[in-house]
Design brief:
transmembrane
């Protein structure tokens, strides 16, 4: 069961598509009645099994009114703590140890207690570390202030001393000249009235320093003196913890009013102030103290960080195990909240969808849960009858998953509807290759894909980028596309636009030297016809383009008509499976007649023309089949009685339109009336239980039959098919257009880049030419053209092919499973 995944999820199974991929798995609505004591273990075992999609029986209740709301809140709190640990580990560069086991045999209560203790310890360590780091950053700033301001005061002191000694030598002045060495104005007349200046030191952010200085000057009306010194290296700000460029400042002021203004301005600008002594001996003492404390703090912080790392590594050892346990428990309680409480409040009743094949395994899981939880009463498992549409579940493997997802992107198949994926596995890469046909480019794609396929085990466990993830998911699609591209490239005989006589020599030879410039008239057939694909002699002749255009255009129509016929045949398969005779006789039959009387006939004419070598104009034949059906065909006649056949086909095509439109609505109305009349007099033999299920499942049987709606729907469907038959056939001509574009681009890159570079006989130009050719081939042909051909192939499948039979209005089977819990983000 390891390879089974819901709704087309890829498993790890083999590479061959399972034979039951045509129809989705038969599903059943089941009811499980579980005693309260074994409910948790039962849901856990069903999650391990992953084959039950529970229905929410408490949809009328809010999340807070449900039975297990408290347990979910508790799991949510534990998940928050785990997210906190994960964030802390990523910041510290600690990786959680990978948990390989699936069974998480630990008690949730123990996990809760342990997580609480670890969170408290880690929070305390972080808080202490933040305090120590703040102190360290403050001391670093203080040290810078001491250094820069000390230099300023020392230089000012030296300058003042020099000036003083000069003045003393000239004039005999009193000894008190050094009272205020920084005041460079002359003494006032009265030497007793000296001005005592105060000063403040600190750091201000460099980008604010000019504004800071200007505001200070204006606020004090110029009664300050400020000096700033630039710090070369960035400083960690103690408040924000971020690096910033700062300047050390010293502001001299006079008076308390000026001081209070300066302090307010410093606060507004985020300038950190630090005490500073004018005394040189005190400065040296403070510097020694700060340096000592910095060394102590560094040691303490280092020890704290080591302790924190050891704690985070301890958490990392068990992190994945705890995380899986918490997620698993949260998922179990979410599911338990979807179950309804029995009247006795001793049992939980659950309903859900499961595949029919899973019944024995589900019953085994229920029995095991009852035994393991020591429950005195076992769980009850029963299948319910319902008219509700079951979910769609396809068992896919790693090969078919990507193809199934391509189909599901258009719409999930209705329950038991024919699955287009069965044929898409072949038709999708083939139609891609028709547009991308070049075996050189195909080999390049194959090499790139083989890298993804051969390393899939390693790559599947890694986190890839968005584009790489997409390419890896579709690796088998790209593998098939590359193989088919090699096949069609061999048919087109193109290897980077160069033809090779791989299977035999060319069947033609030149009549004379100038025949390569002439049309095919200059060629003489000397050997048997080239055995496989296009004869290499066509490449390079003037008639290459007309010949390949004609070939690819007709081939596109043949492929298109064949695939549209396959779509209509699939609608027959659906009608037969659902036992709808109306759809067989009034949808499948007229659609087959209409499509094949017109475009099937065109395909037959193409094949006859190829076989007979006729020169008939098929455009003329098809146009005048409608405009002048009674006229003689003349030289456009391809086979005897062609005119009679055309008239018959035209008549059948015209008849098939009302055949599609009119009978079906009337027959459906008659069937509804007969069914409704039968229901009116039916016996009430239903059990209460089944009636209850029908009520829940929606009353499909009692819907009113709106004949006008049915008729309009059928009218739209008929018009869509008739017009679509023409437009869809024309749409397949994109196969021709893109194939031609790919071939011509490839030819241009080869001739105008590589050959031109070769013709210069210059080694440097040749190297440049080769590089340009490689980049152009990879960028344009292997990336852009691949994407273009992929999208066009996708459109042909979604619109032209699937609209013939595919309703795609189902919903995926989404079982309760623990398989993907480890990969999901919270």
């Amino acid at each position: 069961m390891a390879e089974i995944h819901g709704g087309g999820g890829g498993g790890g199974g083999g590479c061959c598509p399972p034979m039951d991929l045509m129809r989705s798995e038969p599903m059943q609505l089941v009811q499980v009645i579980v005693p309260m004591e074994s409910a948790h273990l039962t849901v856990s075992y069903l999650g391990d099994l992953g084959l039950v999609q529970f229905k929410d029986l408490n949809s009328d209740k809010s999340p807070f009114q449900r039975t297990y709301a408290a347990q979910i809140k508790r799991c949510g709190e534990m998940a928050r703590k785990l997210r906190f640990f994960k964030d802390q580990m990523s910041k510290a560069g600690v990786s959680p140890k990978e948990f390989l086991g699936n069974d998480v045999d630990i008690d949730l209560d123990d996990v809760e207690v342990k997580l609480g203790e670890l969170e408290a310890e880690l929070s305390e360590i972080n808080a202490n570390n933040d305090k120590l780091q703040r102190s360290y950053n403050e001391l670093m700033e203080y040290k810078l202030v001491l250094e820069k301001a000390g230099e300023f005061f020392a230089s000012a002191h030296r300058s003042a001393t020099a000036q003083q000694s000069e003045i003393e030598s000239q004039q005999q002045v009193g000894e008190d000249a050094l009272e205020a060495p920084l005041l460079q104005e002359e003494k006032s007349v009265d030497p007793t009235k000296q001005v005592k200046l105060g000063f403040l030191t600190g750091l201000v952010p460099r980008e604010k320093s000019m504004v800071f200085e200007r505001i200070l000057f204006r606020a004090t009306r110029g009664n300050i003196f400020i000096r700033q010194s630039v710090i070369e290296e960035s400083v960690v700000d103690p408040n924000s913890g971020e690096k910033a460029e700062k300047n050390v400042f010293v502001v001299f002021y006079s008076g308390e009013r000026a001081k209070s203004k300066i302090l307010k301005i410093c606060e507004a600008f985020g300038a950190n102030r630090y005490p500073f002594s004018e005394d040189l001996s005190k400065q040296a003492q403070m510097m020694t103290e700060v340096t000592g404390r910095l060394a102590e703090l560094k040691t303490t912080i280092s020890a704290g960080l080591d302790h924190r790392k050891i704690l985070l590594e301890t958490i990392g050892d068990k992190f994945e195990q705890w995380n899986l346990k918490v997620r698993k428990e949260k998922a179990i309680y979410h599911t338990l909240n979807m179950l309804s409480l029995d009247v006795t409040k001793k049992c939980l009743v659950g309903e859900g969808w499961s595949p029919v094949f899973a019944t024995p395994e589900i019953q085994k899981a229920l029995q095991r849960a009852a035994v393991d939880s020591n429950s005195q009463v076992g769980s009850i498992f029963q299948v319910l009858r319902t008219k509700e549409m079951p979910p769609t579940f396809f068992r896919t493997n790693k090969f078919t998953t990507a193809f199934q997802e391509i189909v599901d992107a258009y719409g999930v198949a209705k329950y038991q509807e024919a699955n287009p994926t069965v044929f898409t596995i072949v038709t999708f890469p083939f139609l891609f290759a028709v547009m991308f046909g070049d075996w050189g480019h195909g080999i390049c794609l194959l090499i790139a894909t083989m890298y993804l396929v051969l390393r899939e085990k390693k790559l599947s466990s890694q986190k890839l980028g968005d584009i790489m993830e997409m390419a890896f998911g579709g690796r088998y699609v790209i593998l098939m596309m590359s193989l088919f591209s090699i096949y069609t490239g061999l048919i087109y005989n193109e290897f980077f636009s160069i033809p090779f006589p791989l299977f035999a020599p060319s069947a033609y030879e030149c009549r004379d030297a100038s025949c390569s410039e002439a049309t095919t008239i200059g060629l003489i057939k000397t050997r048997d016809t080239y055995p496989f694909g296009v004869d290499p002699v066509w490449h390079g002749t003037r008639s290459e383009l007309p010949f390949l255009n004609s070939l690819k255009m007709k081939m596109s129509i043949l492929l298109g008509v064949a695939q549209m016929n396959l779509g209509i045949i699939m609608s027959f398969c659906n009608a037969k499976f659902f036992k709808s005779a109306v759809n067989i006789w009034f949808q499948f039959v007229p659609q087959m007649i209409f499509l094949n009387c017109l475009f099937g006939y065109l395909s037959a004419l193409i094949i006859i023309k190829w076989c007979t070598g006729s020169q008939a104009d098929l455009y003329h034949v098809m146009i005048y089949m409608f405009l002048s059906p009674m006229e003689d065909l003349g030289e456009n006649q391809l086979f005897p009685y062609q005119k009679t056949v055309q008239l018959t086909f035209l008549f059948l095509a015209l008849i098939s339109v009302p055949w599609m439109l009119l009978p079906k609505p009337f027959i459906l109305k008659k069937q509804h009336e007969a069914r409704h009349q039968g229901q009116s007099y039916a016996q009430l033999g239903e059990t209460d239980e089944s009636l209850q299920v029908e009520t829940n499942g929606g009353a499909h049987g009692h819907e009113e039959f709106e004949f006008s709606e049915i008729f309009v729907h059928q009218l739209i469907h008929t018009i869509e098919f008739v017009l679509g038959a023409v437009s869809n056939t024309a749409s397949y001509l994109r196969l021709w257009a893109l194939s031609l574009a790919h071939s011509e681009l490839s030819s241009v890159f080869y001739e105008k880049v590589l050959l031109m570079a070769w013709g210069f006989n210059n080694f440097l130009i040749l190297i440049v030419g080769i590089l340009v050719f490689i980049f152009a081939t990879v960028g344009v042909l292997l990336v852009m053209e691949t994407l273009s051909a992929f999208l066009h192939a996708l459109r042909l499948h979604w619109v032209e092919y699937q609209n013939k039979f595919y309703e795609g209005d189902g919903y995926k089977f989404a079982p309760f499973t623990f398989t993907l819990l480890g990969n999901e983000d919270e």
